[in-house]
Amino acid sequence: MTVKKILIIDDDQALAELLAEYLSSDSLECDIAQDGYTGLDKLRHDKIDLVLLDVMLPGIDGFETLKQLRQFSKTPVLMLTAKGDDFDRILGLELGADDYLPKPFNHRELLARIKAILRRFEYAQQQYNTDSTQVGNLILDHNSHNVRLNDQEVELTGTEFQFLLYLIEHLSQLVSKETLSQQILGRELMQFDRSIDMHISNLRKKLKSDESIQIKTVRGAGYRLLIETNQDA
User: Fold this and answer.
1) Locate the OmpR/PhoB-type domain: which residues (predicted)?
2) Cα 107 from Cα 11, distance rounded (Å)
């Protein structure tokens, strides 16, 4: 089994070392950065499979770190929010976080979230026999997770890519939030969890340049992706 490398960006050294020790006992290799600048430097030069990113950091905070990270990397990010309020969670997801976990958290819950993210990213790279999926003006590259719309690149996070791909696979079908949470986030949908809504909202914003693509909300039920394709011969 390939060892995955986790980068913990947290200025609480004692907590970071405790997390590294716990995660390392489960075949995960861990590195620690105590500020955003150091973390970004490691991400530019090392192969990192997942980032644990604390919101409260010295210098640049977790949100600014995430914003700069997304300018050059699609590495999945699990944000650790001290306050645990909606503002931190929503802002993190808007900036490109893949998931969040409020402090204090159970270490087993953290490990489960990490494994779910790593598992779905690995699965997404292995499950397709073809290199890409195309529907209408949209092309999704399975290997690089790059997306092109009308020959223009669309910057999606890995998780947004997987949401879009799943909706394409179930084109025109109603997909429930519960299903999306299980299939993409790898966990049961929690009460008052806004993560699904935010990922879908991000997708809408990034695909809005093409009116033939619509992600419809079915209130109380889920979402339906509709794509008009040119049927003319």
Assistant:
1) 130-227
2) 18
Q: How far apart are CA 145 and CA 123, in angstroms?
A: 13
How many structural domains are present in the chain? 2
Domain-embedded: residue 157: yes
Pair 78, 55: CB distance under 8 Å:
no
Whole-Å CA distances, 225 to 34, 110, 113, 175:
41, 31, 27, 9
What is the pLDDT at residue 87?
Answer: 79
Residue 153 contacts residue 147 (beta carbons within 8 Å): yes
- Same domain flag for 36 and 107: yes
Cα–Cα distance between 180 and 186 in angstroms, integer?
A: 9
pTM, 2 dp: 0.84
Rounded CA-CA distance 46/33 in Å is 13
